[in-house]
Amino acid sequence: GNDLNASGTAFACRTLTLAVDDTPVAPVVAPSHVGPERATVARAPLFRQPSHEANDIAYRVVEKVELGPRLPLVGAPDMARLGEAVHAIFAADDREADQSDRLERALSILQRWNVHEVQADDVLSACTRLYDHFKGRWPDARMRREIPISARLGDQLISGRIDLLVEHAAGLAIIDHKSFPGSRDNWDAKAVGYGPQLGLYAKAAKLAVGHNACDDLFVHMPIVGALLRLEPESKSA
């Protein structure tokens, strides 16, 4: 009951005695929001990348073309880096340009990738043989390099880049460059492993262009000078 003094002024204090009994009181808990129960649905990944594609469809080699000799290699190159450099040359080469311009561009690519085990002239010869082969096969064909493609397949999105897309009178052909240096006995086994990747590219291409057929699927191995055409084993002869 004492006064409270502040700055020379007295203020009467009001006191209050608080007391509780020992009777327990149950706490009031507000209910939290609970979503409806539902079964878990297993869904496939949203994106499908052709380069990582694997499925149960088996492929076979139905045509094999030896375009030319194996590219001469000096020493023991890093095959991954060499493959990227050769791939870049195929992507950038302009068959209609002057040979000196083609050679300068190929040399600059090899230098940027620090690849010295293969000659630019040899890679350009492989480029010429490939394009001459397709021009002979489809004289009026139009060749498109490094074509990005995306399409919706069911609930999934396909996204990738086609190394070489050839438009011809009967439809489309898809060519994928692979820097495989192995012997002839291993070409078929290596090529069919890329069948699912090419098959998914074909599905995306058909969705993108509509009615055009896309049944010509090729694995090009520039290091060994081989071109192999694939088909699903389930396709009738």
Structural overview:
With 237 residues, this protein is of the alpha+beta class. It has five helices and nine strands, in the order ββββαααβββααββ. The protein has helices at residues 79-92, 99-112, 120-137, 187-192, 195-209, and strands spanning 4-6, 9-11, 47-48, 59-66, 142-153, 156-168, 171-177, 213-221, 226-232. The strands form two sheets. Strands 3, 4, 5, 6, 7, 8 and 9 form a seven-stranded mixed beta sheet that branches. A two-stranded antiparallel ribbon has the order 1-2. A hairpin with a 4-residue loop joins β8 (213-221) and β9 (226-232). α1 (79-92) packs antiparallel against α2 and α2 (99-112) crosses α3. The radius of gyration is 34 Å and the shape is elongated. It starts with a strand and ends in a 5-residue tail after the last strand. The model has no long low-confidence stretch (mean pLDDT 88).
Judged by helices, strands and strand pairing, the structural class is alpha+beta
Mean pLDDT: 88
**Rg from C-alpha positions?**
34 Å
Number of discrete helical segments:
5
Q: What is this structure's SSE topology?
A:
Blueprint: E1 4-6, E2 9-11, E3 47-48, E4 59-66, H1 79-92, H2 99-112, H3 120-137, E5 142-153, E6 156-168, E7 171-177, H4 187-192, H5 195-209, E8 213-221, E9 226-232
Parallel strand pairs: 3-6, 7-8
Antiparallel strand pairs: 1-2, 4-9, 5-6, 6-7, 8-9
What is shown here, in short?
By secondary structure, the chain is of the alpha+beta class. The chain has helices at residues 79-92, 99-112, 120-137, 187-192, 195-209, and strands at 4-6, 9-11, 47-48, 59-66, 142-153, 156-168, 171-177, 213-221, 226-232.
